[in-house]
Design goal:
With 342 residues, this protein is of the alpha/beta class. 40% of the residues lie in helices and 17% in strands. It is built from eleven helices and 13 strands. The protein has helices at 12-23, 41-49, 63-72, 88-93, 95-116, 151-169, 203-211, 239-254, 275-286, 310-316, 324-338; strands at residues 3-7, 27-32, 54-57, 78-81, 120-127, 173-180, 182-184, 218-221, 233-234, 236-238, 262-267, 273-274, 292-295. Strands 3-2-1-4-5-6-11 form a seven-stranded parallel beta sheet, sandwiched between helices. 48% of the residues are buried. The structure holds nicotinamide-adenine-dinucleotide and uridine-5'-diphosphate-4-deoxy-4-fluoro-alpha-D-galactose.
Length: 342
């Protein structure tokens, strides 16, 4: 079987996907510049699967490095492209860095696949950020794009446009863009998980760090939203379920089952959960205490979004297997492990 290239494969979602791909019998090559991850993750993947994926430290935005990578692995024609900068706030401060990194990486990979492969398969990490604050909920794949609220969000919208146009002009390229909602949690083995650098932006790592005593208290951004308890609503789901969606998407293209050469799927639990519900569920399943206080809304946050996942359920046969409680418990197990808490 040909090798699958995972860009950004030592990152949070990429590492969980590497595990699921290896478990499904695929050979994985990871390329990552380690700007937001560590090569230690490869050992975690090996401890879970018994296989250490091949690893190349390189920057996908650097064409020379990518040419060397494709020369070294000439049979690579399937790519799962995770590599991107993803901090929404930072992207507002450093828009050029985000456009350069996220868009150039994508273009380099597409040029190389186009040049070298008679048939190529590409899974892209898109985001529900492309919907902004939707007019109707739950949001379907046919809901319109909304203007992006950050350069990061705009890179996802632009990337989808680039992919759609590339597929249109190509006889060899197939693409599945997965629009992730809010992946959380860690592998049940606690060998890999989310490793935010510095102060976490995201809710669940902030909660687990607070419960572990690394942070004093959780700040909940806004309790005056038009939601049942006033806190914002998102669609949280287990990262292992997300990882499995990538395997299914890839197999769909490899086995020639795509209905169109460019396909888009929402990937989430299909349920809207408030921040306070996350806090209460976390406390219940872990038996920990959690200090929190309400502060003002975070700039750029939307009020509520959750997915209509019927397309992924019916077309891909993908359904999340883990509950919210399991996802939160796995995040806690991972936090305890990295903090040496018994
Ligand atoms: P992550 O930061 O953990 O993983 C991304 C990896 O890409 C990191 O290991 C980083 O070092 C690497 N990387 C970044 N730029 C690179 C480059 N130019 N060359 C090589 N490697 C590079 O992030 P994640 O949460 O695993 O996200 C993976 C993808 O999913 C990203 O594209 C992100 O935008 C997208 N996404 C994530 C979420 C989420 O909630 N985590 C939601 C929607 C979409
Ligand atoms: N929140 C808090 N306190 C915190 C962190 C978050 O109250 O310390 C709240 C946020 O205001 C939001 C919810 O928790 O209401 C979820 O916030 P996250 O930052 O975890 O997730 P977002 O939905 O804001 O953003 C995530 C990714 C983005 C991506 C977006 C859409 O972090 O990269 O989903 O895919 F663009």
């Amino acid at each position: 079987m040909s090798k699958i290239l995972l860009t950004g494969g030592t990152g949070y979602i990429g590492s969980h996907t590497a595990v699921e791909l290896i478990n499904a019998g695929f050979e994985v090559v990871i390329v990552d510049n380690l700007s937001n991850s560590s090569a230690d993750v490869l050992n975690g993947i090996e401890r879970i699967t018994g296989v250490k994926p091949e690893f190349v430290k390189a920057d996908c935005a650097d064409m020379e490095s990518m040419v060397s990578l494709f020369n070294r692995y000439p049979d690579i024609c399937s790519v799962i492209h995770f590599a991107a900068l993803k901090a929404v706030g930072e992207s507002v401060e450093k828009p050029l860095q985000y456009y350069q990194n996220n868009i150039t990486s994508l273009l380099n990979l597409l040029f190389l696949l186009n040049e070298r492969c008679a048939a190529s398969n590409f899974v892209f990490s898109s985001s529900c950020t492309v919907y902004g604050q939707p007019d109707n909920l739950p949001v379907t794949e046919l809901s319109p794009y909304k203007p992006a609220s950050s350069p990061y969000g705009n890179t996802k919208k632009i990337a989808e446009d680039i992919l759609r146009d590339s597929v249109h002009a190509s006889k060899s390229l197939k693409v599945v863009a997965l629009r992730y909602f809010n992946p959380i949690g860690a592998h049940p083995s606690a060998e890999i998980g989310e490793l935010p650098q510095g102060k976490p932006d995201n809710l669940v790592p902030f909660i687990t760090q607070t419960a572990a005593g690394v942070r004093d208290k959780l700040m909940i951004f806004g309790n005056d939203y038009n939601t049942p308890d006033g806190t914002a609503i998102r669609d949280y789901f287990h990262v292992v379920d997300l990882a499995k969606a990538h395997v299914i998407a890839l197999q769909r293209m490899i086995e020639g089952k795509s209905k169109q050469n460019f396909e888009v799927f929402n990937v989430g639990a299909g349920k809207g959960i408030t921040v306070l519900e996350i806090v209460e569920t976390f406390k219940r399943v872990t038996g920990t205490k959690l200090n929190y206080e309400f502060i003002g809304r975070r700039e750029g946050d939307i009020e509520k979004v959750w997915a209509d996942t019927s397309l992924a359920n019916n077309e891909l046969g993908w359904n999340p297997e883990n509950s919210l409680g399991e996802a939160l418990l796995s995040a806690w197990r991972w936090e305890k492990k990295i903090r040496n808490i018994l």
